[in-house]
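Friendly challenge for the regulars: who can give me the structure tokens for this chain first? No prize, just bragging rights.
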Amino acid sequence: MRVMKWSIIALAVAAGTSQFAVASSQEESKGFFGDQSLKLKTRLQYMNRDFRNGAGNISNGDGTFKSGYREDTGISQLLTYESGFTQGTVGFGLDAMAMGSARLDGGEGRTGNGLFANNDDGEPEHSQGKTGAAVKLRLSDTTLKYGNQFVASPVFATDDSRLLPEVATGTLITSKEIEGLELSAGRFTALSAQTGMGRDSINGRHTQGLTSANIVGATYQFNDSLVGTVAASDIDEYFKKQYVNLNYTLPIADAQSLNFDFNGYRTKGQGQERAGNVDNKIWSLAAAYSLGAHKFTIAHQRSSGDAGYYYGVDGGSAVFLANSIQISDFNGKDERSWQARYDINMAEFGVPGLSFMTRYVKGDNIDTGGDSDSQETELNYEAKYVMQEGPAKDLSFRLRSAVYRANSDYNNDNNDVRVIIEYPLSIL
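First reply, four minutes later:
Bragging rights claimed.
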């Protein structure tokens, strides 16, 4: 890992000595207001999880449950403002966000899908909201940002799969001084959950919250076909994690290509090990063949170590793996999983904006500590349509469905249905 990381950087430095841009991003700045943007994203989400085989949502305390399903409907709005940078050698700017959600349907007996937090009476909140801001400065093609922000590192990534996104608080430096090479480093001290309005409200298996997270990363575009990424994190009192990715696309002919995507993580507990024993190695390899409107994908993923792959305190999206899908991540202890997937883009058939996807993943050899290994399977269907023109341009409609089955000693069977309607509006 370390050898590969420094090899990528060395190659990038050698390649970049004659590839500096004529003008840096800061030199081309149009000013604080000249490059500003204001965007509003509205999202309506319905989510239903129907549990099977006697499982349920809220326990009655005697082995039975109040209901066998979870059902919520809500609407949210996310307003984001990004200024440009002031002109000069060092540019200064400001980013801000304001977000809120409202419950349209769902009660105490059906809560639990992660759309809303519960109040003291056990009822999901009727509305939630939070705000945040960050200051930023830029020198040449290097940017430093401090404050509340969204992060998309493989080892620290905020989640946006429900109504409101997670928000991290800290510092992130991103540098693109060398053409084709992006370097990043950051330190984060708080993480606000999707249903938690507090500055540091991550809960669940990690009730003690985030202590601090130090991250580094490098991505290098070797050529038009090959990209490599390495990253590492140090989550204080939890674990240290390393990540590697290689993505290669082989052009075959017009509208034909073959893509290979490899992802790998290594996690090792440290300090108080607040998440328990998380020592793990996990990797996935996906191969995708694209032919016009069609794409066929197969993938294999394998986990090993003293535990399954762990994430969450480092962000709900810190799982860049091929078989991390709608319900399961297929990341159990010693688990092996296989995926078959098919995508079709209907633009070539006269319906631009319409797409369909289906995939099936099976995992086995899961070590649950019993006499036999457990298995799990998941079947997904998805349809999406995006308006291409008119006053409602970019309005999208998305239907997601999942059927999940597993051994009773590993997980609960359930059927998952989600309807997501989203409208992004650029105001400035």
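The mean pLDDT is 90. The first helix runs from residue 2 to 16. Your move, everyone else.
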